[in-house]
Amino acid sequence: MGNANFVKRKSMKYVIGNNKFLEISPKAIEVFEKYKQNHGKNEAGGILLGRCYKDKIVIERVTSPNSSDKAMPTFFDRNREKAQQIVNGEWSYSKGERIYLGEWHTHSEPSPQPSKRDRDMIYNMLKNTIMEIDFLFTIIVGTNDYWVGYQKSKKLTQLKCIKKKVYGCKKFKTTVIIGDSSKLETLKGETD
Questions:
Q1: pLDDT over 90 percentage in the chain
Q2: How many CB atoms lie within 10 A of CB 105?
Q3: What domains does the chain contain, in order, with CATH numbers?
Q4: Which stretch of DSSP H or E encloses residue 162?
């Protein structure tokens, strides 16, 4: 065993609509990857924090699970008081620019789909939270992929990823091609 190439994903970009995009920062992606739900782990999750611009919304930071959250293999419930303290602190520190944008959690499936409980949770958060925005995001981190949703009014829409690269490839057994078809890159890693 030697050192394999290690690739960090750039920010991920999703289409919201009407020339508006969602970007997820590399720091947020690092947290998602750290808590992937492999090998019978409990679900993990937290809140999404970021900024809104005219043409894009950027998720700059996500919180990690803490000891006051409740988690099981098919359930995650974050502590609302702790989360609110973080939201208030981020808002104050950024002079009102960094705001609460939604929720994230893990599923132990490769290509996750939101459960009824997931859908109800994000809808109720939007309906029952006083905010400057009229939408929320929900991100479900699967073992191979993410499900990214945009809740506006009563409708939850899955967003399409338009920029995605491999993240955290420490070792893999085949050549992996990443990027869009106009700019392909090949990464080679070691086998075990």
A1: 74
A2: 26
A3: 12-165 (3.40.140.10)
A4: strand 160-163
Residue 179 above 50 pLDDT?
Answer: no
Question: In 3D, which of 37, 49, 33 has the Cα closest to residue 88?
Answer: 49
Q: What pLDDT, on the 0 to 100 scale, is given for residue 180?
A: 37
Distances (CA, A) of 155 to 7, 14, 17: 36, 17, 14
Pair 48, 137: CB distance under 8 Å: yes
- With CA atoms as reference, report the closest residue to 31 among 133, 189, 168, 157: 168
How many CB atoms within 10 Å of residue 8?
13
Q: Would you say residue 183 has pLDDT above 90?
A: no
SS3 79: coil
**One-letter amino acid of 64:** S
Can you read off the two tokens belonging to residue 23? 């970007």
Q: How far apart are CA 93 and CA 88, in angstroms?
A: 9
C-alpha–C-alpha distance, residues 86 and 55, integer Å: 26
Our CA angle for 126, 127, 128, nearest 5°, is 95
Average pLDDT along the chain: 84
Q: Among 3-12, 99-108, 146-155, 176-185, which stretch is predicted with the lowest mean pLDDT?
A: 176-185
Positive or negative torsion for Cα 167, 170, 173, 177 = positive
